[in-house]
Amino acid sequence: MKIIVTGSLGNVGKPLTQELVQKGHQVTVISSNAEKTKSIEDLGAVAAIGSLNDLDFLVNTFKDADIVYSMVPPANYFDHSLDLLGYYQKLGNNYAKAIEQNAIKKVINLSTIGGNLNNGNGILLGAHHVENILNNLSADVAITHIRPTEFYYNLLPQIHSAKNNGFIGSNIGKDVVNSWVSPVDIAAAIVDEIENGISGRNVRYVASDELTYTELARILGAAIGKEDLKWVQFTDEEMQNGLVEMGIQPKIAVGLTEMYSAIHTGFLYEDYKANKPKEMGKIQLKDFAKDFANAYNSL
Fold first, then answer.
1. In 18-81, at which residue ranges do the beta strands (DSSP E only) sit?
2. CA 136, CA 96: separation in Å to the nearest integer?
3. Are 58 and 93 a contacting pair, CB within 8 Å?
4. Could you tell me which residues are beta bridge partners of residue 107?
5. DSSP H helical segments within 64-124, as ranges?
6. Mind giving me the DSSP string for 174-196?
7. CA–CA gap between residue 10 and residue 1 (Å, rounded)
8. Backbone angles phi, psi at 95, to 5 degrees
9. How far apart are CA 170 and CA 196, in angstroms?
10. Which segments in the chain show pLDDT lower than 50?
């Protein structure tokens, strides 16, 4: 099949492209960076260089595609002029229009945990809007929304606190169980959806490991040689102020704080718990801990 992969060769896009090419699919990878062309072609895929903000580019690139894998690339939270919700809505609408104009009938959309919520999910509200925009396409367009739990690599900024303060933390309690995921496992789930056929409207949660923050700190601490590394819970106010002091846009700092608070209360994971994946992914936190240690040691 001819499959469009958005998100360039990112954390999910690269392993996804590799697997799809290996299975004999014709893959076109969209990237805004022309310097990625050779890397994309080296994987056996076709490079389409352009902007997701350019509707005409998307319409032309989606031509004759059997399946579109859509995702909204990470935004720069340090950009104080960024309209985060508007950013999601713009790309969601562009995807929908390009899909509609090319009469594409199969879509896999990378959403997120909390993509089902229209409030209380902080910065994840944008993903909710993208789901709704795509769901408004004609009923004969089959869509699977992939909702991964929290990415392991979201822990990488914690290396600074681990090195400078001797602890890691957020406004989430140490005994809270969170679910984590590897991009490799997300890619595998997407390939599984494609191979098994996409039909109707579906949601698929993807997770790799579940553990408390106390357990998380213990595993990461062992990996960096700090056996006594602890998880410390901040107040919401401390969390928000700390993010602002780092330079993050104040409105986004509010959204991040709300998102973490929803993890703490369990609100963010209610639908996940009711629709948990039948199998967890293969990459556990202890595997990611090696990457955490490499980043820590290079700081």
1. 26-31, 46-49, 67-70
2. 9
3. no
4. 68, 143
5. 84-101
6. TT-EEEEE-HHHHHHHHHHHHHH
7. 22
8. -60, -50
9. 39
10. none
The helix (H) or strand (E) run that includes residue 58 is helix 55-61
Helix (H, G, I), strand (E, B) or coil at 142: strand
pTM of the full predicted structure?
Answer: 0.96
Tokens for 19, please give them.
């697997």
Residue type, 84: L
Report the alpha-carbon distance of residue 195 to residue 108 in Å, rounded. 12
Coil, helix or strand at residue 284: coil
Q: What does the block give as tokens for 284?
A: 């556990």
186 token code pair:
């997300």
Give the separation between CA 225 and CA 282, rounded to whole angstroms: 25
User: pLDDT tens, 142-169?
Assistant: 999 999 999 999 999 999 999 999 999 9
Kindly report the length of the chain: 299
Burial of 226 (0-12, 13-18, 19+ CB in 10 A): middle
